[in-house]
Amino acid sequence: MMFIRNESFSTFVHRYPVVTTLAGLNIIIHLWVLFLPYGAELYRQGVGANFLISTGEYWRLLTPIFLHSTQSLFHLLFNTFSLVIFAPALEIMLGRFKFLAVYLLAGVVANIATFLLETPMYTHVGASGAIFGLFGVYLYMFLARKDLLDTQNSQLVLTILAISVVMTFVSPQINILGHLFGLAGGLILAPLFTRNAKPFYAVRHTSRKTYLDEDDISFKPNRWKNRARNQKVIRIVLIVIAVLIAIGIYTRLNM
């Protein structure tokens, strides 16, 4: 399974240095904001404040990805947990640079959408848009690159994604547009970033070596070639996402 974490801490750090760094930054910055000198100022300078972005503080389209609510520890724990569970496979499959790029770009897309569609006084923090971007990449793999995602992991990804989307609409104080546009951003970016991707179950990193996982040698890489069907499914999913985004926009404009 791609999402079962049974590595030791040192092995996890060695295999997934980008995920480790991102998770570590989430925790360190949060502790700094809460307990260390200038933490409150760090938070004020990094929060995604639409009015301040409109005055030229464009770094606020990036910095909210590394900040979390000071009112709820759950916000930090949920996003960091999601990152540690679901991101390592993508770091292996895409490569470190591409993984980091798609994570940050999806988060920025989510924050740009929030800036353009929310009210001028709206503020937000959190890595959720970037994490939904990773789910967007997985969704693209399910739809168009089945050579990268087996049936068991596909079902798990779709289940978690469905639950996450539902929770986006029913949970209080959620940046709905950030979640939806993060998902859409990852889905749109995925064809570029998965071009030379390798299946997680076939290729892993161990001390600079690559090896085949013998448990998965029965996998048939040609199962994904029904392009006509895939294209239809992709269009349907894009329509569903567009409807969800429209609902989110309508909800915000009528609040």
Automatic annotation (TrEMBL):
Pfam families linked to this entry: Rhomboid
Domain of life: Bacteria
Transmembrane helix found in the keyword field: yes
Subcellular location, principal: membrane
GO BP terms, alphabetized: proteolysis
Domain Peptidase S54 rhomboid as annotated: residue spans: 56-194
Transmembrane regions: 12-35, 72-90, 97-116, 122-141, 153-170, 176-194, 233-253
Any GO MF annotation of the entry: serine-type endopeptidase activity
Keyword terms, alphabetized: Hydrolase, Membrane, Protease, Transmembrane, Transmembrane helix
Record keyword Protease present: yes
InterPro entries, per database record: Peptidase_S54_rhomboid_dom, Rhomboid-like_sf, Rhomboid_protease_S54
Subcellular location: Membrane
Gene Ontology terms: cellular component: membrane
Membrane topology: Multi-pass membrane protein
Family affiliation: Belongs to the peptidase S54 family.
Name of protein: Membrane associated serine protease, rhomboid family
Species assigned in the record: Shouchella lonarensis
Organism classification: Bacteria, Bacillati, Bacillota, Bacilli, Bacillales
